[in-house]
Amino acid sequence: MKRFVCTSSCALSVCAVLAGCSKAQPPATNNPQAAVSVETVAVVSKKLDAPVSLPAQLLPYETVDVYPKVTGFIDSIKVDRGSRVKKGDLLVRLTAPELVAQRSQAESALRAAESQLASAQAKLVADQGTYLHLASAAKTPGVVAENDLLVANQMAVADKGAVAAAESNANAARDALRSVTQMESYLTIEAPFNGVVTTRNLHPGALVGPASGTGGAVPIVQIVDTDRLRLVVPVPEAQIGTMKEGQGVSFTVAAYPGQAFHAPIARISHDVDVNTRTMPVELDVHNQDGRLSPGSFANVTWPVQRAYPTLFVPTTAVTNDQQHSFVIRVRNRNAEWVTVQTGQAVNTDVEVFGGLQAGDQVVRTASDSIRNGQEVSTKAAKQ
What we know:
single chain, about 375 residues, Elongation Factor Tu (Ef-tu), domain 3, CATH 2.40.50.100, 6-stranded antiparallel barrel, 4-stranded antiparallel beta sheet, about 25% helix
């Protein structure tokens, strides 16, 4: 039998192997992500009642470009830019020599028609008298021929037709004269309402006419009513809320910094412009002192209200991951992403709509670095 002899080198190798085998390996450890410390706030339910600033513009309540109704030359203009006028005040006087000739012709035609009417009426009276005389005589047999009586009757009937035609001609002549007289009245142009002349484009001697005629494209003057103004506010559809006519609104203008003016809501269009997504709303502004100027821009403090309560969180509690907006609700020490839609912002809070309830605790400063389902440690934020 052969025996194996272990040399010193072999012994050392065996000892080294045995020593390596006896050294323990480190156990596998499960090192979970550490809990993140966050501040939480409660979701609050309340009715929205907050003002927002909206741009607006002051416009005159009434404005008119004054054009002539007849063709003529400007004889005189009694007003200029900045003139204050009252309803019925004379603004412009025109001259039109051809209207004088038309009036004379119309008067002559009327006199001729009335003369013809008088002749026809006189002949009717005479022929009717003849017919009545013959009819009376015809009662005695053989005195008047029956044919003569028939002829006299036909003459009276024809005279009645002539009188009716003459009356129609006279009425037409009167209407023609009335038309010329009306045209002559257009030679004087009066103010249609109380206001201020803002523009004067023409001067004495200029040839003017209706819009389709010579010089009609340019108004002689422009008048605006400055005692009463329209404040037109384009209200975004998201901020229409529960506005109603008569509700008071305040506004400011650049001409009077730091001073607020007030006006009621007078007219609501109830129609959202598809291009701007706004609804024009008008406020009635009384401006008897003339401090406000039409065309000025204004900033309106617009009231935004809701008739029902909604949920609010701090604006910092809403974040997004480029796909949707969400808040981070904390339940049982775990973070939970809740998708929301935002509404109106009020100071440092914002409306949210989604799967939240009043009293839910959400992270005050949300971030997508806090993952959905991650363990968190919480502390109440200072209100």
